[in-house]
């Protein structure tokens, strides 16, 4: 069964319906095909233990969007935001097709010289780290309300965007991006950035946040402080957002995962957590 389904035997032997580890469950279903397009999402209601009205004739994209919105509403799981491909018309943070979940995301690791003594670059900042820990630990859960994703994020404002030369035969666009507190990064998009996106302050590189990412005890000691810095310094998969009117944002879909990293350990102390409304 493991070979046929691509599902690890431990899950097959001890399966429990629910929204836990939603990203893995979506990956299990990412190669499925169904007779009725909408059933690509509706057939997963049992796996996630969800109950929603079944609406045929509304497109598979809409059905998948409704499923992902319900998973977010019930669990606050941000792992379902890790995908590449075409964005859904249902919501910019969801993919148009479940095939976007075929590959489980993985974050690149730190270089050896960066792994050692992340605290060595920091001044005596125990008080600042305690404040930062409280801020991150007490963050609200992500919510999906009225077709809007209310998402806590660590925000890095884009300072400069520079188009890069690409292969004319490939329908993609590569940009070099500089964002506050981050090492320069390159991002490949399936569509050309709008002119409005090139304006100063129009783009943000964000790290979706959930307090469980801390993995730390409630009280910080010296070892936990170092672990906090190490956690925040590790490369992570980010989202590229574009500012819209009325203080809302939309996600810009990318052709590859947007893997980014802080410039250095002191940048950890500049961490800014905001709750953004994404449509």
UniProtKB/TrEMBL annotation:
This is Uncharacterized protein. PANTHER family: HET DOMAIN-CONTAINING PROTEIN.
């Amino acid at each position: 069964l493991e070979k046929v389904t691509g599902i690890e035997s431990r899950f097959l032997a001890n399966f429990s319906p629910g929204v836990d580890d939603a990203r893995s469950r979506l990956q299990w279903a990412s190669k499925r095909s169904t007779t009725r397009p909408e059933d690509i999402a509706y057939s997963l209601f049992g796996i996630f233990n969800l109950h929603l009205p079944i609406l045929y004739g509304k497109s598979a994209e809409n059905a998948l969007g409704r499923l992902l919105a319900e998973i977010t509403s019930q669990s606050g799981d941000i792992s379902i935001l890790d995908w590449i491909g075409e964005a859904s018309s249902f919501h910019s943070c969801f993919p148009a097709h479940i095939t976007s979940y075929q590959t489980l995301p993985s974050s690149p690791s730190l270089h050896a010289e960066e792994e050692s003594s992340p605290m060595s670059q920091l001044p005596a900042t125990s008080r600042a780290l305690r404040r930062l820990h409280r801020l991150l630990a007490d963050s609200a859960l992500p919510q999906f309300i009225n077709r809007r994703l209310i998402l806590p994020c660590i925000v890095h404002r884009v300072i400069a965007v520079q188009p890069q030369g690409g292969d004319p035969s490939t329908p993609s666009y590569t940009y070099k991006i500089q964002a506050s507190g981050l090492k320069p990064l390159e991002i490949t998009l399936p569509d050309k950035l709008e002119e409005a996106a090139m304006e100063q302050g129009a783009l943000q590189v964000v790290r979706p946040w959930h307090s469980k990412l801390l993995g730390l005890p409630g009280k910080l000691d010296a070892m936990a402080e170092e672990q906090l810095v190490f956690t925040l310094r590790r490369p992570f998969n980010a989202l590229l957002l574009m500012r819209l009117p009325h203080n809302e944002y939309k996600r810009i879909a990318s052709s590859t995962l947007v893997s980014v990293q802080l410039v250095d350990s002191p940048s950890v102390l500049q961490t800014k957590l905001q709750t953004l409304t994404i449509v």
